[in-house]
Each structure stands twice: as C-alpha cells, then as structure tokens.
Amino acid sequence: MTIAILLVLAYLIGSIPTAVWVSKWVYGIDIREHGSGNAGATNAFRILGKKAGSGVMLADMLKGFFAVKLAFFSSFVHTPPSEPFVNLQIFLGLAAVIGHIFPIWAEFRGGKGIATLFGMILSIHWIVALSLVVVFVLMLLLTRYVSLSSITASIAFPLLILFIFNAHAQESSYRIFAIATAFLVVLTHHKNISRLLSGNESKVPLFRKRGRGRDSIS
C-alpha cells in the first residue's frame, strides 16, 4: 500500500467526529454550539458529563493509535525501529490529528486533537504515553482543569523525551515532533490560558454526578 493512500486513510480515521455524533445521536444537540464550541473530549466532559466525555476521549485516542499502526501496511519503509519507519508513524499520526481538527465528516469543524495526539504517542512509545497520563491525571485531580492538564502534559512530553527517556533518541524528527507538540498545544489553548488567568475556565466535576439538564448544555 502506498504512503499516499495510508496518509489519506489516517486522515479519514482522524476525521471521525466522535463528539459531534455522540452529542447529536444521544443528547440531541450539536456540541459545537455549546461550551467552548470545540468537538473534542474536553468540551464533551464539560457539556455532556463524565460518561460521555470518557467515551469521546477513548474513541479519539484510538483514532490516533490505529492511524499510526497503518505504518505496518507500508512496504516502502524499513522495519521498526528504523528512522524511516518512525518518520512514517509520525506523519500518519499527524494526518489523524489534522483529520480530528478539520474533519471531512463534520464540515471541517472539529476539536483540538489532544486525545488523538495522545493516542498517536501511545502507539509510538507507550512508556512515554503512560508517563504523560500520570502527569495529566495528577494535574486534573489537583485543579480539575482539563485544559491545564493537557497543557502540562504536552510540556512534559519533550522534557521526557529529551532528558528522561531515550525514546527513539536517534531520530531527530521525533525530538522535533515532541518540541513542536508542546508549542502547538500551548498555542491552540491560548483562549483557555486567558480564561485560566482570569479565573473563568470551567472545571470538570470529578466526584459528583452531572445531569443532562439545562445547566449541562448552557
């Protein structure tokens, strides 16, 4: 299978608009018209609650995970863990992230791609990914801000790659990807950062039930 076809498939996988479909089919709303307006896990947690948010997050992670696995269907790169193979994994994962942000199945209006990005990292190097989960969960328990937890985990990503783990250390593209990821996540969360600084960012209700009434979709 050619690399071009694999990239298109990865984009189409990433384009599956999980949050949009769940919000429309289960709750009768378009999640992009509520909360932050993003069709991602963070807004799903905020608007639809923990159960739906968890499902959306898992599905979005699997999009990135399986998109990276498409690299095994290519006969044009060396076998893992060669640099060409890792490079292809990165490009396939990024294609899925782009699909999540600009989904062809949902008028090109998607989310920020954090969960899909995590699934991509999990597929490439699971130890680093699990370390990021620890960082994310600890920050979420401490603050109950999903956005701040995502930003913190993204900044931890290049730090783990460069200073703690030797994950694909021989591939400069992987190190560049880690640094670029942190920068882009912070950049795409600039509105969240502004709300955090002003004290207006919404918190996730971790230890109490959230209803489906007016308050949950306002």
Overview of this structure, please?
With 218 residues, this protein is an all-alpha fold. The chain has one domain. It is 66% helix and 0% strand. It has helices at residues 3-14, 18-27, 41-48, 50-69, 83-101, 114-124, 126-143, 146-164, 172-188, 190-198. Helix 3 runs antiparallel to helix 4, helix 4 (50-69) packs across helix 6 and helix 8 runs antiparallel to helix 9 (172-188). The longest helix has 20 residues, at 50-69. The radius of gyration is 17 Å and the shape is globular. The protein starts with a helix and ends in a 20-residue tail after the last helix. Residues 210-218 have low confidence and may be disordered.
Distance from N terminus to C terminus (CA atoms, Å) equals 46 Å
What is the number of E strands?
Answer: 0
Low-confidence stretches: 210-218
Q: In total, how many domains does the architecture comprise?
A: 1
Along the chain, the helix and strand elements come as: HHHHHHHHHH
Largest sheet: none
Overall SS class:
mainly alpha
Radius of gyration (CA) equals 17 Å
What share of the residues does DSSP label as strand, in percent? under 5%
| Average pLDDT for all residues | 86
